[in-house]
Amino acid sequence: MPFNIWCNGCENHIGMGVRYNAEKTKVGMYYTTPVYKFRMKCHLCTNHFEIQTDPQNLDYVVLEGARRQERRWDPTQNEQVVPEDKDVQKKLVMDSMFRLEHGVTDKAKQKTLAPSIVQLEEYKEKWKDDYMLNKALRQKFRESKKDLARIQERDSALLKKSSLNLSLLPETDEDRRLAGLLKLTPLKSFDERQKQKREEALVKPWFPSSTSNEKHSLANLIKESKMKTLLKPLNKSELGITPKVNKLEEKTSPDDSVVNNEVKIQKTSLVAFDYDSSNSSDEAVT
Question: CA-to-CA distance for 153 and 34, rounded, in angstroms?
Answer without folding.
Answer: 66
